[in-house]
Every structure is written in C-alpha cells, then in structure tokens.
C-alpha cells in the first residue's frame, strides 16, 4: 500500500502481524511511522493497495504520539479509571506495566501538571492498557517488545 502527502510518499511492502502482538516502531523523523499506523487503524485511507484482491484487515491499534497535549483536567487516577479501568486495576497490569513506568507515584497528580516525561509514561500506560484483552497476557506480550 502507498500514501502520498505533498512531497512525501510512503510505500509499505507486504508483511504480517499476529494476534495479541505488541509492535514498537522506531525510526527517523518524517519516515512515515504515524502515517502507517493511521492507515492500519483505518484513520487514513491509502492511495493504493497493491494487488486487486488485497485488503487491509481491521486492527485494534493503540499508539502513543511523540507530542502529547494534556487536556484532561483531573488526576492520573481518574484518567486511568475512565480510559482503562479493567487493566489498571488488574494486579498483573500493575506489576508488569504500572510499577516499571512508576505510574503509582503519579496517581494523585493532575494530568495538566505533569512534566513531559511523566506525560509520556502515562500515555504509554494508557496505550498498553487500551487493547489488552486479558491483563494477565501482558507478561507474555512484554517479552516481545
């Protein structure tokens, strides 16, 4: 599939993702990471999909943008409770995600008052908690990061 935006052209060759796999994409600025993720999430239509029978399967995509603008006027605890209640209350998620990210020490702070690094950690926690079918599966998934 491909997408052109101005002078930028992204061309994605065929590949595979497996169920319940966590994929981390790293790369230089302007290489098309966000464009690719937005196409996978169905938020952006590709210009072309190679092969007339090819189609993009539906994915549950959760991604953490590089720049975050905090708009939530309440505490981190209230944010997690409203967005990922089942995950953030599960003991396995707490031990495998929240403790390593040092989220517990931020729980009572207002989201709008967090530093840039703290915001990134909370956003990563939200990202990991959003599409976890079973919080107990985090242990298996975290090994693939």
TrEMBL record:
Residues 13-128 form the ABC transporter domain. Gene3D superfamilies: P-loop containing nucleotide triphosphate hydrolases (3.40.50.300). Pfam families: ABC_tran. One of its GO terms (molecular function) is ATP binding. SUPFAM superfamilies: P-loop containing nucleoside triphosphate hydrolases (SSF52540). Transmembrane segments: none annotated. PANTHER family: ATP-BINDING TRANSPORT PROTEIN-RELATED. This is ABC transporter domain-containing protein. It comes from Salix brachista.
